[in-house]
Specification:
By secondary structure, the protein is an all-alpha fold. The chain folds into 2 domains: 3-272, no CATH class; 279-382, Four Helix Bundle (Hemerythrin (Met), subunit A) (Up-down Bundle). 68% of the residues lie in helices and 2% in strands. The chain contains 17 helices and 4 strands. The chain has a two-stranded antiparallel sheet with strand order 1-3. The model is unreliable at 1-5 (pLDDT under 50). Bound molecules: zinc ion (2 copies).
């Protein structure tokens, strides 16, 4: 029980956070327009602002989140250092503390132990947990990260790291380009306010609004507008269901610059061992969520006379669909195994037969899917 107590947050006003968030937001949102009105803006100020608005949050998403908290890939020392350096510039705590709280968020999501649980309200999940609550960090869940001297150093000397990368460096660049005050308003205050609230939206907006594509029972949602603001982190329902995948926006067209950066780092040889969940597992999760949604909706409709018949029909189609999907997966694996082992030439009969079996299985799956999509009409006819 004593171990359990350290997980629970207690009410305690954090004045340091209140003052810090208030000052940066006020100076950023009110001070910046006044400064711009009187002094205008130069190209160097825009460049520095844009640079920090890209590099600091990307270090959080690619580094703090997907590399350190979830270990969805490996990266070399230079990349790890840069993520720690510019991640500190976002003023979102040390990577170790961030990862510990985030791992607990995934493990205990929507419960009392979730550090930023949406069950305590939208504001609590957004930033209330940082202002009015204190939750002792146990660090038991980040022992793997504590082995890294770089991560431990950033944690121990976090104030120096964050001050250097988040405030002193932009001010120094501002001073060297003759725009010290502009750098303070734009690249420190306004930039911090924007990054903070964009990040907070993942814990609030993405647990309140959007689509539950892969898990209908989790509060996490896929919210494309938040993904736009957070370099791809808004596809949160997928992320909670498959946290080990380095992608959050899993489809190629989904806005996830973090995933593109990681892929780029892999191509350059700076990152490796990128973890991807197979498309069959992703498709299976999507179909399961869809089936659960249909069944739940049917059960809540009191005006359906033959509910049991319809539920049986829905579940029969669903089972057929899942069977067709696993047949397709098996035949695809068989074909891929042949290719990777290079047993014979691609034109040989053994390949042709495996390819045929895979195409046939895929065809059967697509047919089952069409039948599945036709279900709502059948359901209405039966009702
Ligand atoms: Zn979440
Ligand atoms: Zn996560």
């Amino acid at each position: 029980m004593a171990q359990d107590e350290v997980f629970f947050p207690v009410r305690k006003t954090n004045w340091v956070n209140i003052v810090f968030f208030s000052i940066t937001a006020f100076l950023g949102v009110v001070g910046t327009p006044i400064y711009l009105y009187y002094f205008g803006i130069s190209a160097s100020e825009i460049l520095l602002f844009v640079f920090y608005l890209i590099v600091a949050p990307l270090s959080i998403t690619s580094g703090y989140h997907r590399l350190f908290a979830h270990v969805t890939y490996q990266a070399n020392a230079l990349v790890r250092f840069l993520f720690l350096f510019f991640g500190a510039a976002a003023y979102e705590q040390s990577a170790l503390k961030w990862a510990s709280q985030h791992r607990d968020h995934h493990r205990y999501v929507d419960t009392e132990r979730d550090p930023y649980s949406i069950k305590k309200g939208f504001f609590h999940a957004h930033m209330g947990w940082l202002l009015f609550w204190e939750r002792p960090i146990h660090y038991e869940n980040v022992k793997d990260l504590q082995k890294s001297r770089l991560i431990s150093h950033q944690h121990r000397y976090y104030r120096i790291w964050s001050l250097t990368s988040g405030i002193l460096l932009p001010l120094l660049i501002g001073a060297l380009t003759g725009h010290l005050i502009g750098a303070f308003f734009l690249s420190v205050c306004l930039r911090l306010a924007l990054i903070h609230h964009a990040t907070f939206c993942i814990n609030s907006v993405c647990h309140a609004f959007g689509k539950a594509t892969f898990d209908i029972y989790s509060s996490a949602r896929d919210h494309w507008a938040t993904a736009l603001m957070t370099y791809g982190e808004g596809y949160h329902n997928f992320h909670h269901h498959f946290p080990a995948d380095y992608r959050n926006g899993v489809r190629w067209y989904q806005w996830d610059p973090t995933k593109w950066l990681i892929t780029l780092l892999e191509k350059a040889g700076f990152a490796w061992n990128l973890k991807r969940v197979s498309r069959f597992r992703i498709l299976a999760a999507k179909l399961t969520a869809e089936n659960q949604r249909i069944c739940d909706q049917l059960k809540t409709d009191r005006y359906i006379p033959n509910l049991q018949t319809i539920l049986t029909l829905v579940n029969t189609h669903y089972e057929k669909l899942r069977q067709a999907l696993s047949d397709w997966e098996r035949s695809a694996k068989e074909y891929q195994d042949l290719l990777s082992k290079r047993i014979a030439h691609r034109s040989d009969v053994i390949y042709q037969e495996a390819l045929y079996r895979m195409c046939e299985a895929r065809g059967r799956f697509r047919h089952s899917l069409t039948m599945w999509h036709a279900l709502p009409r059948k359901r209405l006819a039966l009702a």
